[in-house]
Amino acid sequence: MKRSLVLFVVLVAVLSLSSVALAQDTVTVGPVTQAILDRGELICGVNANVPGFGVVNESGEFQGFDVDFCHAVAAAVLGDATAVAFRPLNGSERQAAIQGGEIDMMSRNTTWTLSRDTTWGATFGPTTFYDGQGIGTTIASGIQTMEDLDQGSICVQSGTTTELNLTDAITKRGLDIEVQTYPDAPSTWEAFVAGRCDAWTTDKSGILSLHATSADPSAYVILDVTLSKEPLGPLSPQSDPQFADIIAWTVYGMIQAEEFGITSQNIDEFLGSEDPGINRLLGQNGEQAGSYLGIANDFMVTVIRQVGNYGEVYDRNLGVAPFSLARGINGLWTDGGLLYAPPFR
Ligand SMILES: N[C@@H](CCC(=O)N[C@@H](CS)C(=O)NCC(=O)O)C(=O)O
């Protein structure tokens, strides 16, 4: 009787130990994550031409809101936010770059759509910026509505949702507008500035970016019309669901950190917290976080310390002059916005 009790206790102990081991062993490192670990660097496809989101600065470094999510994922996987090689991509180069395995991920004002999700061989991560397509023009033109462009012309970039939505909007309104297409942001913008089109169209964030950084921002206006929904966010090859999870939970972790008020400046005050929710986000006090993803359990400590929470990333790139972009629908759900991270548990 006594012997069988001992056996039973031993059996329970062995079983519970092996189930702990099982929980951790079930995370198989995927091919993209493994490649990043082997090379010690994340290859991230970004924009080089949209200040505030992705641009090459005076020191030759990529900088911007989208660029910071590449840094965050490098911090999550490699523990080093600077271990990133950037690949600039124009609109039409995106599909081949993600499908051909040239990049590990993309973070470049890319709209999540059904056809891209299914035909690009990509997994879209959480939306990091909720946008909509707009129309930009000069104040001098006197144009106030899309209808005012009838018999006129508009410049647009090829290989974008912008181009497709524009055709829809013209057809829906029965307008006669000449559409001129250009391969990238600089050529589209320059054609408009040179007066080859009466207006130009892209995501409102992109319009603001180029208007605000132009020689005379006060000469331009964004019309009070939104032609589409443009949920912009990161994406990665569909071949690696583990890596896609890392991207997703890094973004969610940055949103959750903002909700908790944890920043790159005050993170040390939150280590050793009594709050189980905070410990679960930060992988502290025996709580599991990164171990579910196959990366350092306290990966969010590294991400927040080195890159910051979502609000910090937004503020330093878009909240400052010349953009001074209000959070609007990109606020936290607790502030009436759309940003809402699922539970870390
Ligand atoms: N969100 C849209 C448009 C994104 C887009 O490519 N916008 C242009 C206009 S601002 C851009 O970023 N161009 C930069 C470039 O091609 O160098 C999409 O995913 O297709």
Describe the protein.
By secondary structure, this protein is an alpha/beta fold. It has two domains: 31-130 and 232-335, Periplasmic binding protein-like II (D-Maltodextrin-Binding Protein, domain 2); 133-228, 3-Layer(aba) Sandwich (D-Maltodextrin-Binding Protein, domain 2). It has helices at 2-25, 31-39, 65-78, 94-99, 114-119, 161-173, 185-193, 204-212, 241-260, 267-270, 276-282, 299-306, 310-317; strands at 42-46, 49-50, 54-56, 62-63, 84-88, 105-106, 122-124, 129-131, 133-138, 153-157, 178-182, 199-203, 220-222, 230-232, 235-237. Helix 3 (65-78) packs across helix 9 (241-260), helix 3 packs antiparallel against helix 12 (299-306) and helix 9 packs across helix 12 (299-306). The two termini are 40 Å apart. The site of glutathione has 19 residues, from strand 2, helix 6, strand 12 and strand 14.
How are the SSEs placed, and which strands pair?
Blueprint: H1 2-25, H2 31-39, E1 42-46, E2 49-50, E3 54-56, E4 62-63, H3 65-78, E5 84-88, H4 94-99, E6 105-106, H5 114-119, E7 122-124, E8 129-131, E9 133-138, E10 153-157, H6 161-173, E11 178-182, H7 185-193, E12 199-203, H8 204-212, E13 220-222, E14 230-232, E15 235-237, H9 241-260, H10 267-270, H11 276-282, H12 299-306, H13 310-317
Parallel strand pairs: 1-5, 1-6, 10-11, 10-12
Antiparallel strand pairs: 2-3, 3-4, 7-15, 8-14, 9-12, 9-13
Bound molecules: glutathione.
